[in-house]
Design goal:
It contains two helices and four strands. It is an alpha+beta fold and about 100 residues long. It has a single domain, classed as Alpha-Beta Plaits, CATH 3.30.70. A hairpin with an 8-residue loop joins strand 2 and strand 3.
Length: about 100
C-alpha cells in the first residue's frame, strides 16, 4: 500500500474557497479515477510556513495504480488546481510506502 501525499500551503484569502472546492470537486474527481482506495484531508496545525497548510492524502493499493494515476489523470487535475488558484498556493507531492509494524 502506498500513500500519495499532496501538501499545499495556501494564501489566507484562498483557504475557504479552496477547502470547499477540494471537498466538493477535486477529491471526488481524484477518487473517481479508481486509482485510490481511500483519502483524507488534514490541516497542519504547527506549520512553520506563512499561510495555511493542508495535506490531501490518497491511498493506492499498488505502484501500478499510482503510476497510472500520474500518467493518465494527474496532469489534467493538477492543471485545474493551477488555473483555479493561480499564484495563491504552493504544493509539493510525496509518495510513501506503508511499513508494517514488527511488534
Amino acid at each position: 500500500m502506498l500513500l500519495y501525499n499532496v501538501t499545499l500551503i495556501l494564501d489566507d484569502a484562498a483557504v475557504e474557497e479552496w477547502l470547499q472546492w477540494m471537498q466538493q470537486t477535486h477529491i471526488p474527481e481524484v477518487m473517481a479515477t479508481g486509482m485510490f482506495v481511500s483519502n483524507r484531508l488534514l490541516k497542519v496545525l504547527d506549520s512553520p510556513n506563512e499561510g495555511v497548510t493542508y495535506c490531501a492524502q490518497y491511498v493506492a493499493e499498488t505502484l501500478e495504480n499510482y503510476n497510472e494515476y500520474q500518467s493518465e489523470f494527474a496532469p489534467e487535475l493538477q492543471e485545474s488546481l493551477n488555473r483555479k488558484f493561480k499564484n495563491r498556493f504552493v504544493a509539493y507531492r510525496t509518495l510513501m510506502e506503508f511499513v508494517p509494524p514488527t511488534f
